[in-house]
């Protein structure tokens, strides 16, 4: 089992000569310092020398980044016209979130306010919470009443799905109701999962409160509305 491995020779062109005919079959071997320095010097000189086509450049001609950005804009515009624009906007919302803050509101308790101008028909924020069924929602509503939690942070998605943001949610749960809101809620489907996203109906200025219509069902026990708008209905339900 013990035999001496033949010493690896070099060819006239400086490349190592493989006795077995395959470099992989001869395993790992060290590289001489002279060969390593020669390789490093050649690679360093190649890196420092710019390509011939970039040595003289017209400043008016867009570079690689500019061409890439224009191509991205072109693809986005083409996809928006043919594919589901809600999906593209939702992906943009994940990477470019709107600057929002919550503080005391003149409508009710806490409210959500814009920290930057928001154009019309833009995604403002996603209503995040736990997806529960109607039976669980009824049980939790009674439990929240026993715990003294007066505000309801449950948002209905469809007939049997409700998003509960009472104890697991984001800033969207602080959005107050208004009979003349500047936003509206919309249910979109992303990767076969329904999500609630708040859209802007009009241009929203900095420090303006984000509001939307809760659209509560009509009930005998009325909940007073404190939005203060000109066309206020007086009640939320």
Describe the protein's topology:
Elements: E1 9-10, E2 16-17, H1 33-48, H2 64-82, H3 85-95, E3 100-104, E4 110-114, E5 123-127, E6 130-132, H4 134-147, E7 154-156, E8 162-164, E9 176-177, E10 183-190, E11 193-200, E12 211-212
Parallel strand pairs: 9-12
Antiparallel strand pairs: 1-2, 3-4, 5-11, 6-8, 7-8, 10-11
Description:
The protein has 237 residues and is of the alpha+beta class. The protein has helices at residues 33-48, 64-82, 85-95, 134-147, and strands spanning 9-10, 16-17, 100-104, 110-114, 123-127, 130-132, 154-156, 162-164, 176-177, 183-190, 193-200, 211-212. It has a 3-stranded antiparallel sheet, covered by helices on one side. Strands 6-8-7 form a 3-stranded antiparallel sheet. A two-stranded antiparallel ribbon has the order 1-2. The longest helix is centred in the first third of the chain and has 19 residues, at 64-82. The relative contact order is 0.12.
Count of helix runs: 4
Major sheet description: 3 strands, antiparallel
Order of strands in the sheet with the most strands?
A: 5-11-10
At the third CATH level, what is the topology name of the domain at 85-128 and 170-212? Beta-clip-like
Domain Post-SET: 221-237
Keywords: Chromatin regulator, Methyltransferase, Nucleus, RNA-binding, S-adenosyl-L-methionine, Transcription, Transcription regulation, Transferase
Subcellular location: Nucleus
GO molecular function: histone H3K4 methyltransferase activity; RNA binding
């Amino acid at each position: 089992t013990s035999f001496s491995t033949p010493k690896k020779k070099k060819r006239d062109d400086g490349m190592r000569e493989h006795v077995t005919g395959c470099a992989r079959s001869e395993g790992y071997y060290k590289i001489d310092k002279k060969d390593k320095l020669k390789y490093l010097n050649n690679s360093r000189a190649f890196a420092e020398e710019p390509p011939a086509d970039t040595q003289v450049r017209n400043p008016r001609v867009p570079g690689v980044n500019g061409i890439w950005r224009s191509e991205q804009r072109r693809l986005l515009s083409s996809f928006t016209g043919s594919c589901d624009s809600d999906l593209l906007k939702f992906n943009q919302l994940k990477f470019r979130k709107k600057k929002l803050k919550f503080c005391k509101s003149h409508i009710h308790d806490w409210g959500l306010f814009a920290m930057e101008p928001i154009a019309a028909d833009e995604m403002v924020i996603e209503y995040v919470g736990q997806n529960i069924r109607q039976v669980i929602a009824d049980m939790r509503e009674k439990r929240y009443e026993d715990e003294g939690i007066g505000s309801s942070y449950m948002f209905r998605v469809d007939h049997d799905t409700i998003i509960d943001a009472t104890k697991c949610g984001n800033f969207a749960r602080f959005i107050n109701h208004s009979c003349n809101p500047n936003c509206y809620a919309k249910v979109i489907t992303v990767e076969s999962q329904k999500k609630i996203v708040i859209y802007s109906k009009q241009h929203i200025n900095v420090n303006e409160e984000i509001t939307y219509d809760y659209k509560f069902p009509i009930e005998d026990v009325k909940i007073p509305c404190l939005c203060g708008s000109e066309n206020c209905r007086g009640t939320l339900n």
